From TrEMBL:
Residues 368-488 form the Squalene cyclase C-terminal domain. One of its GO terms (biological process) is diterpenoid biosynthetic process. It comes from the Bacteria. The lineage of its organism: Bacteria, Bacillati, Actinomycetota, Actinomycetes, Micromonosporales. This is Squalene-hopene cyclase-like protein. GO terms for molecular function: magnesium ion binding; terpene synthase activity.
Amino acid sequence: MSILAAVGDLLGEMTATPTGQSSVSVYETGRLVSLSPWLTLHAARIRYLLDAEHPTGGWGGPGGYGLAPTLSATEGLLAALRRGDLAGTSDPLHRGAVAAVDRGLAVLGDRLAAVPASALPDMPAIDLIVPALVEALTVHLDAMRDDPVTGLERWRTAPRLPLPPGMTPTRLARVRAALTSGHPLPEKLMHALEVAGPAARRAAGVVPVGPGTVGASPAATAAWLGVPDATTSAARAYLEGVVRQHGGPVPCTSPISVFERSWVLSTLSRAGVPLSAPPPVLASLRDTLGPAGTATAPGLPVDADTTSVTLYALARAGQPVDPSSLRSFDTGEHFCTWPKEDGASITTNAHVLDAVGWHLRHGGARAEHLAPVVRRLTTWLAERQAPEGSWSSDRWHASPYYATSCAVLALHGYGVGASVEPVVRRAVCWVLAGQHPDGSWGRWGGTAEETSYALQVLLAAGQASSDQCAQAIARGWRWLVTMDGFDGGPALWHDKDLYRPSLIVRAAALAVTWWGRTSAGPDPVEAGPSSRSAMIRIA
């Protein structure tokens, strides 16, 4: 299949799937097993958890990335066993669940004590999720002293699970107290409402929105819903719909349509892929933008990351919208993802630089007020480059290749001042040094996604004229095009669990494949359709 045909298929899928496409989550699925045994495909979710367990025990990604998934799967399976959801001990699912819980508790006993809170990845609500699930497991284990589960007798007297060194339940207690007393929670906490335990059920001031979701999260919606009744038909319909999408297990966030559509369109257009964005998709993005910006999904707060990428995607599609909605995220130094954010995101600020820089370049005199913002963001990003040349950590992705690609594309395209060239040059050197012998790139091994980000850096930075860079691009491109499609690979994006937005990842790979086949590639900032006849049109 040609690249343009593959892009056409991708855009067609995106248009036909309004909720977006995301990989399923062990964490989120474990919460539904625990909270909603009445929900359609309950046994399928249990089976998924058993199949997703690592051979040595535990679930999820490497290191600290496996903590929340392992806690959730272990607690969910133990809750199912204690309720008697499964048939007797002769049932293979029952036997599998007992063995998985036994291994999970052993893994957690080692991991919780060994990994300090400061070493855990910057995942949303992890400081609430871990104490909540450790507490839930403690309740189960205490109850098993008098009512043991066959096959788990050794845990009746075992030491109880600790919190990671440096982590306390203080913030969780405050959240629960606020919810119990009727005080409104910050909107961003709705995404992890399940941490509140029984206080989440029909909590005052919490109302499902959009398709019936609380916090765009199946787990948060299930925690609010409890056992459904005639007054909760929208929330139940949301859950029934989301479990059917993957045959039982569920993603962390659904829907993700704004996030998916804006990232796909901006990635493809920046690489110069000749396309005509589907009018319904563009209309949907414009409709989501309000004076305060846009959110990834109904039930989530507006954020600067989604807002800026949406603005950039619309601008490149010939439908620019004034970027004034970003003002409320401006701290005077950088842009926060949302107000009162802890820390700061490299990729959010890179995306804001994209959006603001495009409007400064194309807005003429009426956009001159954006020039100080562009200068400030250029400096802020440059100062946060690691000495070896990467932007090594970001709160929205596990791989430094994503953060580095976002920063380089923004700085090379719209950064100003003498600092830009040496900063970009250091990033190129870091990418060159990180290429695997087979031509790929990746934090834990070569992946199509991370190889795409590395190639974006090399192609965008204009270094293809050097022999070393040209050879690295050729090796990387050859490795990438031998992949059987671009839908495989690990989950690398941060939510309550690692996840993979499949169309966004596929768009990144298609973009650099197109770029690589058009010699050194078009200008990544101002590239557009080369001719009307080459444009892809999706009705």
